[in-house]
Amino acid sequence: MTLFRSGFWSVAPFAFQTxxxxxxxxxxxxxxxxSNVVLGDKIGFRTVAPDLSGFIPFGQLEMLRxxxxxxxxxxxxxxxxxxxxxxxxxxxDLNSLDFLKEYLHNPxxxxxxxxxxxxxxxxxxxxWNHYNHSPEQLAFSELIQKMEDNKTFLPDFEVxxxxxxxxxAYNAMAQRAYSKVDSKTVTKFEDYNFQxxxxxxxxxxxxxxxxxxxxxxxxxxxxxxIIDFFDTNPDLKxxxxxxxxxxxxxxxxETLRKDKNAYNGDEHxxxxxxxxxxxxxxxxxxxxxxxxxxxxxxxxxxxxxxAWQTAIDLAHKxxxxxxxxxxxxxxxxxxxxx
Length: 338
Known about the structure:
Oligomer: single chain
Helix content: 40-55%
Number of helices: 18
Shape: globular
Strand order of the largest sheet: 1-2-3-4
Structural class: alpha+beta
Largest sheet: 4 strands, antiparallel
């Protein structure tokens, strides 16, 4: 219930740690089994596996931050295979552990793992590039590695598809742009800021000083400085381009900036309806509704039920059957137990 009270109705929970929840981040472009797995709590969620079939190997990868677990995993390999068999059958990927096994039997790879402070980021990206092998993943890996290696690097802006890493990629670039901006250059970096703002809030936040690895942190905090730039006060030294000012979500940005602690997401709901009905952009409408849910949860510890129902209607309208069913069932659950 805490998950839904916190506005994260766009996550389908399936496993629990002591303080955090594993869930599937609902994605209109993918079915449930192929959607990314996230881990988090009422503060926010971070991506930890590309899909359900990667859930078990990426759980082992997390343990490999400590080299002593190499031996533990290998000693219990048969048990791991036996206990995970039913889950791997369910995800239609009985071979999901093969790459991990090959990695742990490769002396060169083991040598990397034995010095995690120097090499774990390389290992981490190798796993992602294998289990989420796609042009989008490779583009993200290249971007995040360049930004990690060069603390001033910021690529020229372009709208690019980073797949499941869109939110984290644009959050990272906006944070890097933030390090370069002043009152005279706000509009120079407006595209970075706005592309970050229109991603679904509450997921894959990036702090000002970030690393290759996702961390659990609060979007409301990491976005604070970026949101403050959405100000059209004529006394300021910047003026946004018409492309930005006329976007349906710009009003939401301005409203949020005026009082972040009292915002309940309503302007994002209004924007979502325009995006879907007038601009034929249901995916961005979905992101807007997810963000509405997040801010209601952050500020009032309860979901914005209008956003939730609008998301159900959006899913039904566009034939996102699995999402429609999950959202409907989760809303029934919430209404029964709230």
